[in-house]
Amino acid sequence: MYDATGVEISWISPALGSWLEGMRYRYRQLKTWVDKDRPPSFWLTGFMRPQGFLTAVKQEVTRQKSAEKWALDEVDYYTTVQTVEIKTSDGSIGEKALKSVSDGVLIHGLYMEGAQWNIKLGCLEESEGKDLKTLYKDFPVLHVTAETTKAQEDNRQQKGGKETREQLMKTCYLCPVYKYKARTDKYLIFKVFLKADSGQSSGERQISPKINWKLKGVALLCSKE
Do residues 147 and 75 touch, judged by C-beta distance below 8 A? Predict the structure, then answer.
């Protein structure tokens, strides 16, 4: 929904019924957060401006790292795919028991288009089927935190053994996350590194796994509508 100037003021939905339903689910998440406690995992579609929420996450982690003199303009997202799937359609986590994270947040409710995630191998793989029912795959819970872009290799062990951005660029596909199916910068939320290959031999490859997923336009979406 847009105002008279063309500014998006509400989530876009093809039908009034689904719009009202989505608004009810978003209200429930925010009210539960205010009345009870910080949820163990956030439904990213529950925010009108997911970019703003994730920017706040970076700010929070930066404050936690104040002793290490992190600067917000030198911080970027660092994500890790979890082994937990949440497939509820209303944004809730159901009966899932999630472990709290010491920094950053857990988010859920994303859909993958163009591929699917292999939880056991921890990497992207080809989708099963090409019909509408299998076009969008539920994506596991994602841990979103932050990492300073000035991290040096000699202190990497002190930071939990995380790979540097340069290392991730070599082995992972930088997957865009969009609000809607429309692939425009207007709806781009952020990008996450996803392991592009299991490392297992599958015969002679014509192109690298990273290029393969890029050519297929693999992306994560908040909404399938």
Answer: yes
pLDDT tens per residue across span 96-108:
889 889 899 999 9
- Give me Rg for the CA atoms of the chain: 18
Model confidence, pTM: 0.89
Contacts of 77 (CB under 8 A, 6+ apart): 54, 58, 144, 145, 146, 147, 190, 191, 192
| Residue 122 near residue 89, CB atoms below 8 Å | no
Given pLDDT bands bounded at 50, 70 and 90, which one contains residue 157? very low
Domains of the chain, each with CATH number or no CATH: 40-221 (3.10.490.20)
| Number of residues that make up the chain | 225
Q: What is the 3-state secondary structure (H, E, C) of 122-140?
A: CEEECCCCCCHHHHEEECC
Q: What percent of the chain has pLDDT over 70?
A: 86
Q: Residue-wise over 78-106: b if at least 16 C-beta within 10 A, else e?
A: bbbbbebebeeeebbbeeeeeeeeeebbb
β pairing state of 123-125 and 136-138 = unpaired
Sign of CA dihedral 174, 121, 142, 177: positive
User: What does the pLDDT look like over 182-194, one tens digit per residue?
Assistant: 999 999 999 999 9
**Are 175 and 220 contacting, i.e. CB atoms less than 8 angstroms apart?**
yes
Q: Hey, what are 159's tokens?
A: 């930071």
Report CA-CA distances (Å) from 55 to 116, 128, 165.
Answer: 27, 35, 19
